[in-house]
Amino acid sequence: MLGFLLAGPKGFVLGPLALLLFLSRPRSLREWVWILISVVLAVALLRLPASLSDRTIRAAAAFFTGAFVMTSLAGVRSLFNRALASVTFTTAAVAGWFATMGLGWSDLRESIVSTQWTLYRALIADLPSTMPTRGELDSGALAGRVADITRGILTTVDYWPAIHALFAMAGGWLAWMWYHRIASEPIGLAPKRFREFSFSDHLVWLVILSGAALLAGVGGTGRLVAGNLLMFLLALYAGRGLAVIRTALLPAPRVLAVLLSITSIVLLPLAMVTATLIGLADTWLDIRRRMAPPEGALP
């Protein structure tokens, strides 16, 4: 959780955590301390100068918090379904907010690019005042560090919605996990172990449809939606694949698990592709059922 609070958008964790704790009628000092921490951080963040991209993340965190807490109170048992439904609602709510404000993807994209380029310029003094265009990058006019930074920012911008949807999913899981550790009388069921992570097999059809749309060469908004949907789903399947791998490693010596973890960090792209393929294969093979862990195995 500390890593997420340092690197990820705080609202996706602290918002649901604080509201769930408050609605559970807090009795202990520990519960009130976490509520106070969440409120103080929220006020501090709201007082900071904010670009359009920052305001969008804050609005998304507020929408996600409301949706996640409502589905939790409504008794939806599956943590994954609650988080996914909340992400879907948040996406629609942010789109509606943008329409109400007369804003579009181009406005948000420009804000993201400007914010990230300004951050890089603060760290690296010899960068140009404005970020080069995609055309300049594709033409080969850029080289070295400027080309690498430009390519990285453009890739981040292209998949910015998917990245933050994944942040929201992870934030909901962390909030629910810590809520059950902190609350004196939490509602609902505690989250399952990561090695049990799974979801409906029907989601594979969205992978097929979004991939087919990209292969068909859709452009404009269609390409943006299909690309981000595919990226989001493949990341979920990568998580499912990692859960399968975690189950497979239960009987293995801990040294082997550590060595595989170190190797996967060094070969991260290959490791993520492998995990995604295993996650997709699990849709049809139900791999974990075929290799049930031994009795008494620790998570």
Structure description:
With 299 residues, the chain is mostly helical. The chain folds into two domains: 1-191, no CATH class; 193-299, no CATH class. It is built from 14 helices and no strands. It is globular.
Q: What percent of residues are in strands?
A: under 5%
User: How large is the count of helical segments?
Assistant: 14
Q: Which residues sit in consecutive blocks of at least 5 with pLDDT less than 50? A: none
Number of E-type strands: 0
What does the secondary structure layout of this molecule look like, with pairings?
Layout: H1 2-7, H2 11-23, H3 29-46, H4 52-73, H5 79-101, H6 105-123, H7 134-138, H8 144-158, H9 160-182, H10 204-215, H11 220-248, H12 254-266, H13 268-285, H14 287-290
Quick overview:
The chain is mostly helical and 299 residues long. It is built from 14 helices and no strands.
Task: Give me some keywords for this one.
single chain, 299 residues, mainly alpha, 2 domains, 74% helix, globular
